[in-house]
């Protein structure tokens, strides 16, 4: 009888050990699976963060380049070249509207990627409009009455707008940081 009890205890211990080993094995697999899921989740989050950063950098680059282009387009050098080329008011209008569309685009991009630049871009846009009005008036007056005094006054007013535009562009460019 003692042998039977010992055998039963041994069998129960073996079964108990197998159950415990099975439970531990299952728990180990669950933890391993959780670790794998956590690692994969972290990889996805890191890739998403990298994509967002890359996208933001590309947006900032577009804003920066467009502000530089607009600043170059609306300069005294451009005014003098425009006057020397004999460009018509309609041709100048076409150039202005093309640049205005570019500024509309960068104003939107600024809202998305660099909100603190928006006010400066609004000031740039306003100076650009006044610049256009000054050059347009100069082109119109040059064809109708070539008075050099009026031309100097118009160029002085345009220069003032160029300074406003440059100041707004400079502030915007200084705020664009990766």
Structure write-up:
This protein has 178 residues and is an all-alpha fold. Helix content is 91%, strand content 0%. The protein is built from 5 helices and no strands. It is rod-shaped. The chain starts with a helix and ends with a helix. The model has no long low-confidence stretch (mean pLDDT 82).
Largest sheet: none
Return the structural class: mainly alpha
Mean pLDDT: 82
Strand content: under 5%
Elements, N to C (H/E): HHHHH
Q: Could you tell me the radius of gyration in angstroms?
A: 36 Å
- What sort of overall outline do the alpha carbons produce when their principal axes are compared? rod-shaped
Task: Give the beta-strand count.
Answer: 0
Distance between the termini: 83 Å
Helix content: over 70%
Low-confidence stretches: none
What is the tally of helical segments? 5
């Amino acid at each position: 009888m003692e042998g039977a009890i010992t055998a039963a205890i041994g069998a129960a211990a073996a079964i108990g050990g197998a159950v415990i080993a099975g439970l531990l094995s299952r728990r180990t697999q669950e933890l391993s699976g959780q670790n794998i899921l956590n690692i994969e989740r972290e990889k996805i989050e890191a890739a998403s963060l990298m994509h967002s950063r890359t996208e933001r950098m590309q947006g900032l680059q577009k804003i920066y380049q467009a502000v530089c282009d607009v600043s170059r387009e609306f300069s005294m050098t451009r005014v003098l070249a425009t006057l020397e080329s004999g460009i018509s008011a309609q041709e100048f209008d076409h150039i202005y509207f093309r640049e205005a569309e570019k500024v509309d685009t960068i104003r939107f991009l600024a809202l998305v990627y660099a909100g603190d630049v928006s006010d400066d871009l609004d000031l740039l846009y306003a100076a650009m409009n006044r610049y256009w009005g000054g050059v347009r008036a100069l082109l119109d007056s040059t064809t109708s009455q070539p008075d050099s005094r009026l031309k100097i006054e118009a160029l002085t007013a345009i220069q003032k707008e160029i300074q406003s535009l440059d100041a707004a562009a400079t502030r915007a460019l200084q705020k664009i940081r990766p």
